[in-house]
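Dear support,

I submitted the protein below through the web form. The confirmation email said the job was done, but the results page showed an empty box. After a refresh the structure appeared. I'm attaching both so you can tell me whether what I see now is the final result or a partial one.
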Amino acid sequence: MTLRIQEKNEFRYVDEGTGEVLLLLHGLFGALSNWEDVITEFSTRYRVVIPLLPIYDMPLLKAGVPGLVSFVEDFLAEIGLQEPCTVLGNSLGGHIALVYALQNPDRVARLVLTGSSGLFEDGMGGSFPKRGNYAYVEEKVAYTFYDPTVATRELVDEVFSVTNSNSKCLRIISIARSAQRHNLSKELSRIQAPTLLVWGLNDTITPPVVAHEFHRLLPNSELRFLDHCGHAPMMERPADFNRLLMGFLQTTVPQAS
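What the results page shows now:
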């Protein structure tokens, strides 16, 4: 599908469908298109909202998890979305979702985390990516998935373009290091919203042990694993991810505001 991207002031976003709101947050090297299958499946009965996070161009001094959470808060205020919503986050997006929930418990009806950072991750952003080395970037992008063919040429080209920009790389490093420093283990017990954890059994960036730890620390959580799946289940196993998400939405009562 072709995504219809809207713009309002400095914000670029997808806003499709009507009804209960699903707020989707992408990861460090992610994009709006990461959620394409979720948009297709759920926009017929939910309002699906996805902001494009300013990972590559936000002010360097704000390039970190707190700055991205503030961006999400400002974005929701800008589009007038004040009611509680179900927040979904992949990788860094999950980390942002968790901090947003801690700071705005009355605005989060449910949480859905997949390959979330916040406890531990082993990613590419912790050091300066090798500029001009296409094979290195291709290997790292493929490392995200169980099936390396999911790392299409288009996806590798996009990441390669990012790693060839000094300014973008500096922001990636700043954000990645902020995520690694910002461990949430002592705070997660405060989150009472129903939470679905969907994890790839073959995730090498946030391995299954991380999912079990999230499940232990989040008091109202359920954990589901997908086999033959890496760090981005909504991309690699979209039908199964959507089935688990639909079941969760239909069987849980949103946290009251």
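Response: this is the final, complete result; the empty box was a page-load delay. The chain has one domain: 5-251.
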